[in-house]
Amino acid sequence: MAKKIQRIGVLTSGGDAPGMNAAIRAVVRACAYYHTDCVGFYRGFQGVIEGDYEELNARSVRNIISRGGTILKSARSREFLTKEGRQKAADTIKKAEIDALVLIGGDGTFRGGKIFNEEHNISVIGVPGTIDNDIFGTNYTIGYDTALNTVVEAIDKIRDTASSHNRLFFVEVMGRDAGFIALNSGIGAGAEEILIPEENLGLERLLFSLERSRRSGKTSSIVVVSEGDKIGKNVFQLAEYVTQNLPDYDARVTVLGHIQRGGSPSCFDRVLASRLCVRAVELLLDGQTNMMVGFINNKVESCSLEDALKSKPDINKDLLRISDILST
Amino acid sequence: MAKKIQRIGVLTSGGDAPGMNAAIRAVVRACAYYHTDCVGFYRGFQGVIEGDYEELNARSVRNIISRGGTILKSARSREFLTKEGRQKAADTIKKAEIDALVLIGGDGTFRGGKIFNEEHNISVIGVPGTIDNDIFGTNYTIGYDTALNTVVEAIDKIRDTASSHNRLFFVEVMGRDAGFIALNSGIGAGAEEILIPEENLGLERLLFSLERSRRSGKTSSIVVVSEGDKIGKNVFQLAEYVTQNLPDYDARVTVLGHIQRGGSPSCFDRVLASRLCVRAVELLLDGQTNMMVGFINNKVESCSLEDALKSKPDINKDLLRISDILST
Amino acid sequence: MAKKIQRIGVLTSGGDAPGMNAAIRAVVRACAYYHTDCVGFYRGFQGVIEGDYEELNARSVRNIISRGGTILKSARSREFLTKEGRQKAADTIKKAEIDALVLIGGDGTFRGGKIFNEEHNISVIGVPGTIDNDIFGTNYTIGYDTALNTVVEAIDKIRDTASSHNRLFFVEVMGRDAGFIALNSGIGAGAEEILIPEENLGLERLLFSLERSRRSGKTSSIVVVSEGDKIGKNVFQLAEYVTQNLPDYDARVTVLGHIQRGGSPSCFDRVLASRLCVRAVELLLDGQTNMMVGFINNKVESCSLEDALKSKPDINKDLLRISDILST
Amino acid sequence: MAKKIQRIGVLTSGGDAPGMNAAIRAVVRACAYYHTDCVGFYRGFQGVIEGDYEELNARSVRNIISRGGTILKSARSREFLTKEGRQKAADTIKKAEIDALVLIGGDGTFRGGKIFNEEHNISVIGVPGTIDNDIFGTNYTIGYDTALNTVVEAIDKIRDTASSHNRLFFVEVMGRDAGFIALNSGIGAGAEEILIPEENLGLERLLFSLERSRRSGKTSSIVVVSEGDKIGKNVFQLAEYVTQNLPDYDARVTVLGHIQRGGSPSCFDRVLASRLCVRAVELLLDGQTNMMVGFINNKVESCSLEDALKSKPDINKDLLRISDILST
């Protein structure tokens, strides 16, 4: 019979994402509501290894819902990848009398949680928190919506300059393995072209399309490029290639970089984080483990961590079509 | 046999919403992509009645995706509610050789479109554009996500003052018949209480809950109140009632008002508007009429206008529960 | 001979303003830099009376520069208006071995500081922190620039709706005694008319001007009204009066309210707060008292509290002229 | 005797800056107010050379006050640097019967205007519009305040990530020849170090200071670097150098790039643009030429273009001191 859960630990791990604080707050307050103790570990699994944690109550998380980053800090712990590291972590868990963990992060985090559960039989529930939206088992990850708004606002600003100077801008956005940010922010920003890792349009097509749009009277253009775009050139090489082949164009590059991870979370991300984390706590109290909570078809759902890790969500091909139609 | 659609009209009607320009742009560009003419009517159905329209092409809608409001302006036409008004509108449509209409607005707009179709056999497709999110047949209306962000940012600011002065703030948000904005923005802003038209908590409970939260050491509180809240008092009376009964509280009122309708649309609303309107044009070209496009379970779908008008979406009761848990 | 200053207290008092946290941070860090102790009193003079304070060091103020509100909270202490209240405050000061105070607030705060100094010989320096910009002895008060941006962004949103619906909007902004916010934000937002306490244009002129602008083809208008406007009607009565006399207009009212006090401070306010507060600490360490620091002609200056309290800055008449010219 | 000015041309030239549209609007409306014709040239002097212009009236500039970029577009015309180019421009001016020009831009623009006036006796008034704030004869250039806010908001976001991951961030901001943006935004963002072209702190000092701040318990740091910083390394080399010497640090680089030029202008920039441009038109109508308008000591002033071009404003050394004190 499952042990009664009386004390839950929470941590944020991997790249930070807006809404992680809203998620922490929801875990803490759901624990308070259900008269369950809650402790927060600092710097992800590294804090578990080092025993670096703090008791959290409703007051500890006051007014953090609107803040970017994570009050628990985040890290990618190399030590936790080793058996010894995980043993130390298990020792902390035991000593601190913690019954279960809520893990807020991406698939690296969940993989760590799954193996930790297998080796040391500690209940874990994963909550998808990453700007990349590349987690199977949820339509939206916490932080993704905010990152899209940040990117779109930045491109709106670049558009001011592009239009004023009749320029071509290459804007690199985050997403090493997945083009979700590029594709959605590109449509949202009205980009003329969008280059993503999932689809290799080829340089020819890019040149062709830019030439056509110039001939049609367009004097400025925005090309959104995902970090991990498949064309095999980085964004600076890409810009150079294009200007060599289309000398009419005055091309510039902007790499948006880390501003995409920060900022006050959008309402969507705050509500998503709140709903997922209440459910995460409830699942633990209900004796569940090794699950991930997600938002599927407008409802909070859960799946096994195994399923969540088995595959990657597909890019929505229809969005590529929409982008094509609208950049006419 | 259905007539081939060669010329499509588009209009925005009812209360304006952020993303309406993104929607207009998508209609115009989808038409251009499918080699179909497109005209824009000004001030909703009133412009149809008065023959106030303009040819639109891809260039007409350049750089409008990021702008609030609607370049076609919006109105609630009283004349269109009369048979004579609709006859005049039909005359315009005939004279301008328009084969079909895309109607961006709320249920008033759709009701008008439906009767117009019945009387004059003009193909119409509705696109849900309203900040209220009160349309059956779509999980999200265009403008709703942006309005939520506007409200949450405003309450974040009010929270600064509330915390600094240990005050109780009543913040009235839009939503005469539906509490969607209040409920979601209330959770997003971490409101202590949320009052919505769908649920009458009663004044007793409000007093009780505020007293409890003060005793627990909370020195400031935010109560989000929907315009149409059922307690039967307006927000100023509510504040007065509370201060009379809980003299400890220093209470203030802010009515957010029309800032909720404006502003640059969020990425979500821009992508939603783009997807729905491409589909709207494609449905018309496919010979469909009397339909509404919507976003259901993360997919673009369509239903009959009749179904869309038959009922109202329910408030998500689970969100009330979440709010309760998190305002601990 | 003046006692050496070894321990400085800081407080925020009166209405809160964005940039107060940047000011507190600068006081604390300047103290650290000059090896001087620093304590923060909560809720303005009330915290001095009650002995409610905390030691502050460089770490206590980490990452607060970007936050609205004030971590020390603010209040208007009625007790401090009495001799007894001030005696209690002096007792705290003595007991806590505090040598001097930095007072961040408006003229009520400075008046309190001046009398406190006279009665109990405690060194005080005032720092102008209020959104109203109504302090003599500085061209800018901390918080004013941020409030202007908040108002202008809000009116930009209202303009979206006003244009879309051809409406007339009356927007009430803060400034009970001074029209600084109304005048500058009105010009910044491109308002058609600006009503301020310093100037009574009269209702006739307003009607005349609105009529003229309608005739010239303007279909929407924004009138910015200062809380304390001299026409002697509140903004709702004003709107009613106008619609009765100009029935063509569809008029609406928005009272911006407390969102004007909150929000992350602008760069200007953060730098201003930083510069003024470093100077405040240096003045104290230099043996000065009863002074206010200010920003005059692009330089940090200081004047006696007496001079600061003697008069009120005049509204810039040239700005009224500019508004007139630009609303053509 | 000076010819009566009956027709004024306006153009924006050089790098675009937020507030240029507010400036254009003010020129156009001031002309309308004084019953003077106004035409706008596209793409700076290039549009004058090519005769690419449009009549502008009060309606043409409706609702542009809030928009970034410039509706007249901007460019750096190489042709105008030649005598032949300027002759063509003078021909346009004559043919279009334009009596005077308002030139919105930086010192390149003013230099062009001055020589154009000398060769062809056309009245010109310069208005300082550039984000760099590097113009002698004004305390603030149009666009500078907005750029500072954009930078500070971006660094606030990066701070979220830096704090969450205990990282060191190097953030490169604009300012090839002048450190104004770096210095003010660095103070506003609470940067630990600021590197500007005007001052070579040396790499030693940077290492020393970072080491000290790490030892004092600071786990994350922001270093703001001006494009044209004197250390003689670009920001990537700088980051590499630091990580080689301080291997404890996990360092990242963000180059903010062109987002700094765009965006809706701040209230300050809108009011500044409005005031300067009304004055520019009034000076022309008053028979003046070869002047630049500026904002000095809180007043609109003017100086000769010659004086404006003679020197560069000095960096405020006191701000370096403030930065030093506050990054304790």
TrEMBL record, chains A, B, C, D:
<feature type="binding site">
    <location>
        <position position="167"/>
    </location>
    <ligand>
        <name>substrate</name>
    </ligand>
</feature>
<keyword id="KW-0021">Allosteric enzyme</keyword>
<dbReference type="InterPro" id="IPR022953">
    <property type="entry name" value="ATP_PFK"/>
</dbReference>
<keyword id="KW-0479">Metal-binding</keyword>
<feature type="binding site" description="in other chain">
    <location>
        <begin position="218"/>
        <end position="220"/>
    </location>
    <ligand>
        <name>ADP</name>
    </ligand>
</feature>
<dbReference type="GO" id="GO:0061621">
    <property type="term" value="P:canonical glycolysis"/>
</dbReference>
<dbReference type="GO" id="GO:0070095">
    <property type="term" value="F:fructose-6-phosphate binding"/>
</dbReference>
<dbReference type="GO" id="GO:0046872">
    <property type="term" value="F:metal ion binding"/>
</dbReference>
<keyword id="KW-0067">ATP-binding</keyword>
<feature type="binding site" description="in other chain">
    <location>
        <position position="159"/>
    </location>
    <ligand>
        <name>ADP</name>
    </ligand>
</feature>
<feature type="binding site">
    <location>
        <position position="107"/>
    </location>
    <ligand>
        <name>Mg(2+)</name>
    </ligand>
</feature>
<keyword id="KW-0460">Magnesium</keyword>
<comment type="similarity">
    <text>Belongs to the phosphofructokinase type A (PFKA) family. ATP-dependent PFK group I subfamily. Prokaryotic clade 'B1' sub-subfamily.</text>
</comment>
<feature type="binding site">
    <location>
        <begin position="25"/>
        <end position="29"/>
    </location>
    <ligand>
        <name>ADP</name>
    </ligand>
</feature>
<feature type="binding site">
    <location>
        <position position="15"/>
    </location>
    <ligand>
        <name>ATP</name>
    </ligand>
</feature>
<dbReference type="GO" id="GO:0005524">
    <property type="term" value="F:ATP binding"/>
</dbReference>
<feature type="binding site">
    <location>
        <begin position="76"/>
        <end position="77"/>
    </location>
    <ligand>
        <name>ATP</name>
    </ligand>
</feature>
<comment type="subunit">
    <text>Homotetramer.</text>
</comment>
<dbReference type="GO" id="GO:0048029">
    <property type="term" value="F:monosaccharide binding"/>
</dbReference>
<keyword id="KW-0808">Transferase</keyword>
<dbReference type="GO" id="GO:0005945">
    <property type="term" value="C:6-phosphofructokinase complex"/>
</dbReference>
<dbReference type="InterPro" id="IPR035966">
    <property type="entry name" value="PKF_sf"/>
</dbReference>
<protein>
    <recommendedName>
        <fullName>ATP-dependent 6-phosphofructokinase</fullName>
        <ecNumber>2.7.1.11</ecNumber>
    </recommendedName>
</protein>
<dbReference type="GO" id="GO:0003872">
    <property type="term" value="F:6-phosphofructokinase activity"/>
</dbReference>
<keyword id="KW-0963">Cytoplasm</keyword>
<feature type="binding site" description="in other chain">
    <location>
        <begin position="174"/>
        <end position="176"/>
    </location>
    <ligand>
        <name>substrate</name>
    </ligand>
</feature>
<feature type="binding site" description="in other chain">
    <location>
        <begin position="130"/>
        <end position="132"/>
    </location>
    <ligand>
        <name>substrate</name>
    </ligand>
</feature>
<dbReference type="Pfam" id="PF00365">
    <property type="entry name" value="PFK"/>
</dbReference>
<keyword id="KW-0418">Kinase</keyword>
<dbReference type="GO" id="GO:0042802">
    <property type="term" value="F:identical protein binding"/>
</dbReference>
<dbReference type="InterPro" id="IPR015912">
    <property type="entry name" value="Phosphofructokinase_CS"/>
</dbReference>
<comment type="function">
    <text>Catalyzes the phosphorylation of D-fructose 6-phosphate to fructose 1,6-bisphosphate by ATP, the first committing step of glycolysis.</text>
</comment>
<feature type="binding site">
    <location>
        <position position="252"/>
    </location>
    <ligand>
        <name>substrate</name>
    </ligand>
</feature>
<feature type="domain" description="Phosphofructokinase">
    <location>
        <begin position="7"/>
        <end position="284"/>
    </location>
</feature>
<keyword id="KW-0547">Nucleotide-binding</keyword>
<feature type="binding site" description="in other chain">
    <location>
        <begin position="258"/>
        <end position="261"/>
    </location>
    <ligand>
        <name>substrate</name>
    </ligand>
</feature>
<feature type="binding site" description="in other chain">
    <location>
        <position position="227"/>
    </location>
    <ligand>
        <name>substrate</name>
    </ligand>
</feature>
<feature type="binding site" description="in other chain">
    <location>
        <begin position="190"/>
        <end position="192"/>
    </location>
    <ligand>
        <name>ADP</name>
    </ligand>
</feature>
<feature type="active site" description="Proton acceptor">
    <location>
        <position position="132"/>
    </location>
</feature>
<comment type="pathway">
    <text>Carbohydrate degradation; glycolysis; D-glyceraldehyde 3-phosphate and glycerone phosphate from D-glucose: step 3/4.</text>
</comment>
<dbReference type="GO" id="GO:0016208">
    <property type="term" value="F:AMP binding"/>
</dbReference>
<dbReference type="InterPro" id="IPR012003">
    <property type="entry name" value="ATP_PFK_prok-type"/>
</dbReference>
